[in-house]
Design a protein that fits this description.
about 200 residues; alpha/beta; Nonspecific Lipid-transfer Protein, Chain A; 2 domains; 5-stranded mixed β-sheet; two-stranded antiparallel ribbon; 7 helices
Length: about 200
């Protein structure tokens, strides 16, 4: 069954709670307004120091920041996209750059923050823009291997630590160090998972 947009945001909350340091690297607040069937509005608070309550479902897709609860932060960028396009992007079926260039994604506010969207999506196990999709496929394939010893099943799982080279990196070592930290998070967070930094 195809996941819904709501499924993604629920999974984002779980992933952010499991790895808050990774989740808050963007140090910003996004508002997502998803139109169409199964759409809605969500506030995603990824500010540094946050440990829980990363995702809040808003009353309706037209909610403006003024109608948020008093303690809710103001979004730095609001992403407008059709719910079915969002699902296609977060499951690797639609190229987000093409979607943006063709007008399927609109950004109000700081458009530069949109470059953080792949990082946000890729930290959610089972979803991915770019590298996360194949890694989750590999993790799932290994988990589903039917390996037996003396007619008894032998469960095998694996964990992955993933990062990507950033413009501010002075060498590949910075990226590898983040991947190594992410791998430790994956192991300490229950194993058989993909964590990103």
């Amino acid at each position: 069954m195809e996941p819904s947009a709501s499924d993604f945001f629920e999974a984002l909350e779980r992933s952010a709670r499991n790895a808050p340091e990774s989740a808050t690297q963007a140090d910003t607040v996004f508002k997502f307004v998803l139109s169409g069937t199964h759409g809605g509005a969500w506030l995603v608070d990824l500010t540094k120091g946050k440990r829980s309550g990363f995702v809040a479902r808003l009353p309706d897709a037209t909610s403006e920041p003024a109608s948020h609860p008093e303690e809710a932060p103001e979004p730095a960028a609001t992403i407008h996209v059709d719910a079915s396009d969002w699902v296609a992007m977060t499951t690797g079926k639609m190229n987000p750059m093409r979607a943006f260039m063709s007008g399927k994604i609109k950004v109000d506010g700081d458009i530069k923050l949109a470059v953080n969207l792949p990082i946000v999506v890729n930290m959610v196990d089972g979803y991915g823009i770019g590298t996360q999709g194949p890694i989750t496929v590999m993790r799932t394939a290994i988990e589903n291997l039917d390996i037996r010893w003396q007619d008894q099943p032998v469960p095998i799982t694996c964990s992955f630590g993933v990062s990507q080279v950033r413009a501010a990196d002075e060498s590949i070592d910075a990226c590898l160090a983040r991947a190594d930290q992410a791998l430790y998070e994956a192991k300490s967070g229950g194993r058989n998972r993909v964590c990103r930094r």
